[in-house]
Amino acid sequence: MNGFTLxxxxxxxxxxxxxxxxxxxxxxxxxxxxxxxLIEGLIDDSPAGFPRQDFPETAGDIRLFSVPGRTxxxxxxxxxxxxxxxxASIHLDAAxxxxxxxxxxxxxxxxxxxxxxxxxxxxxxxxxEKGDTEALIRGIAAEFSAQGTPVGGFTANGSNLVLSGSxxxxxxxxxxxxAKIFDNLYCGGKRSALELAKIGQKAENNYFGKPSGLMDQxxxxxxxxxxxxxxxxxxxxxxxxxxxxxxxxxALCVVATGGNHADLVPxxxxxxxxxxxxxxxxxxxxLREVDEELFFSRxxxxxxxxxxxxxxxxxxxxxxxxxxxxxxxVDAMLASLEKMNTPTAKEEGAKAFLSLVxxxxxxxxxxxxxIYPPGNPGEQGISLALALTKNFxxxxxxxxxxxxxxxxxxxxxxxxxxxxxxxxxLIENNFGKGSLTVLKVRQTGAAELFAK
Length: 452
Known about the structure:
The chain has 14 helices and twelve strands.
C-alpha cells in the first residue's frame, strides 16, 4: 500500500483486530497514532519529514513491521553454558514502517536516536562500526548474502518501546526487526523465527562485537512463551507454549530499581568464565557437558585447583550448582505451564510455577550471586526490591526473582491482580513513578502487519 492508503486502513475493523491482539484493547488508539505518525514521517515533504534523496519517490510500497521484546521466565545465566531457558515475548516492541528502494542504501530513522545510513554495496566487517547500529544492518545483510539471498536497500522510520536497560532485550528486538524487513522485502518472508534469530546473533557477535547467546533473539522472534534447550548450540530445540498469567489471576511485572550498569561488564563476564573454568577442570568446554554426580564427587579437588588458578573457587562452585539446578527447574516450569493450560489442573499448575519462580530467584541470590555488585555493597536496589516484594506477599501466592543479567537493573514479580494497585504504590514510593511496568505476553513474534 502507499502511505495514504495505509493510514486509512489503520482505521478499519480488520486493522483494529490485529493491533488489539498485539497491544491489548486499552492500547489500540495509541498503536494507531504511533503507526500513523511513523507513516506520516516517511511520506512528509516538510523539513520534519525524510529528505527526498533518502526516500526516493519510486519507493511507494510501504509496509509495517513489529518485533516484541522478551522477558526471561527461567534459566538465569544458563544459555552461555548451553543450558535451558524459558522466556516469553511481550507487548512492548520495536516497530517500523519500511519501503524498498531501487538502490542498495539502507536509511533508518528511529525516534530519539540519530539517523543511520548504510551502503550495502560493501558488506565487509568494519572495526569503526562495532557497537553501532550500522554494524547490525551491515552484518545482517552480509549473512543473508552469504546464504545466497542478496538483499536490497530500504528506508524505514521506527520507534522502540522496549525499555532500555531492563533486561527486556531492546537490542535483540531491533536486530530481528532488521532481519524481518530484509527477509520480507527481498526473500519472500520464508525464514523461520529460529533462522532469523541466528542471523541476528551472527551480526551481533561478528559485526557488532558483542559475544551474546541466542536466547534473546529466539524469544523475540518466536512469540508466546518458549522453552529453549541449547544442548546443541547450532540447532537448539525450541518448544512454544501458551502462557497468559492473567488467566491465573496474576500480573507479570518488572520493577526498575535503578543503578549504574556502566562498571558491571567484569561482573557479567565473570559468570560464564567461572562456569567454564569448572567445566575445564573436567576436560569440558561448558557446564552442560559435565556430569553432575562427578562434579559433587570431586568438589574438594575442584576447589583446590580453581584456587591455584586464581579463580574464586567457592563462588565458581556455587555458580555451577545454580546451573545444574536451574536446568532442572526450566523443565519443571515448562511442565507446570502445561498444567496451567489444562482446565482441571490450572490452579495446581499456577501454584507449582510460582513456587519454581521463587526457587529460581533464591538460587540467583544465594548461589549465582548476581543480585548486587560484590565491590559495592551499598548499592543493593535489586535486593531491596526483592525484600519489599517478599514482605508484601507474606506467603500469599505470588513470586519474584532477579530479571536478566542482574547486579543492577530490574526484578520480575508475579502479583495477584487484586493487589496490583497496592503493590504499585509500594514500588513507586521507593523507586519512583513509572518504576513498575506490567507486561502482557504477546503471542505473535516477529511479524509484518496487515500482510496479504
